[in-house]
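FAQ: What does a ligand-bound record look like?

Like this one, built around magnesium ion:
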Amino acid sequence: MKIICIGRNYAEHAKELNNPVPAKPVVFMKPPSALLVNEKPFYYPDFTKDLHHELEVVLKICKNGKAVQPEFASGYYDEIALGIDFTARDLQDELKKKGHPWEIAKGFDNSAVVGKFVPLDKVQKDGNIEFFLKKNGEKVQHGHTRDMIFTFDQLIVYVSQYFKLLQGDLIFTGTPAGVGPVQIGDLLEGYVVTGEGKEEQLLGCEVK
Ligand code: MG
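The answer part, i.e. the structure of the complex:
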């Protein structure tokens, strides 16, 4: 199982971190040991003083595929979850300045929090998924997947040119604006708005 992540896929988020809006998807990976599931707590690592939440829609790959053609891309995922791409922003900024890879700032243990999966058609309405993150009960990120620079299908096509997609792989599809620091004791909760307009919690994570 691999965890593929997309950076800067929402223009407003690219702007808030002073990054250019990309012409091609920005791709990085987290190792399987980054995965944190079943609402287990996340322990704040001691190598950062600026840990950020990034709430993202996560696709689960449902069949193997290499160099997927655009007309077939939507057949490679049928369930989504919400995930948090935990980021050591201070480390990432240092690495970015040097032009070094991001892995230690992004792929550390338990940095890929994934909530429960639901069928895509339950939460997608008119091609859009509305989702938001509450930190200690207050809404801090609010996204619509229609604002993505690269659609789910475009990401499948792009990524599968380089990495063979295997059933069970996960794709973090990028975070909307509103990323920010978390502290020990924070409670993070991710919600989607269902097709019937109801708010459903898909993710919960306590920072310890
Ligand atoms: Mg991210």
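Follow-up question: can I read anything off the structure? Yes, for example: The mean pLDDT is 96.
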